[in-house]
Design goal:
This protein is mainly alpha-helical and about 120 residues long. The chain contains 4 helices and no strands.
Length: about 120
């Protein structure tokens, strides 16, 4: 399989003699490419056309909306973490208060019934 592919590539890419007018065609092409606009000029044309495009404002708006959404999502996650922390603190405070109430209730019960 590889030999067949190799042979086909050698046949397709074998060296060929250049035509007599090859050098003239290359020179003519080089002269015509000198008249082509410089890359900076082409880039400014692309930029100006992109700003006139109707898709660029839509893409910018989509990026802005996505950015705002990400910020809001992060804020919601932070709020949820704070809420969980506050809940844990409340449960700890209620547990401590419950323990203290049980101690006081036991002391009151001993005072009311000293013989038990």
């Amino acid at each position: 399989m590889t030999d067949e592919l190799d042979k086909a590539l050698h046949r397709a890419l074998r060296p060929q003699r250049a035509n007599v007018d090859f050098a003239e065609r290359i020179a003519a092409r080089l002269d015509s490419s000198a008249a082509a606009p410089a890359p900076a000029a082409r880039l400014s044309f692309i930029r100006s056309r992109a700003f006139r495009s109707r898709w660029l404002p839509a893409a910018l708006a989509a990026c802005l909306i996505a950015g705002i959404g990400i910020v809001q999502l992060r804020q919601h996650a932070l709020d949820a973490a704070r809420a969980n922390q506050a809940r844990a603190q409340l449960l700890q405070a209620l547990s401590i208060a419950s323990d203290n109430v049980n101690i006081v209730r036991a002391a009151v019960a001993r005072e009311e019934h000293p013989d038990s």
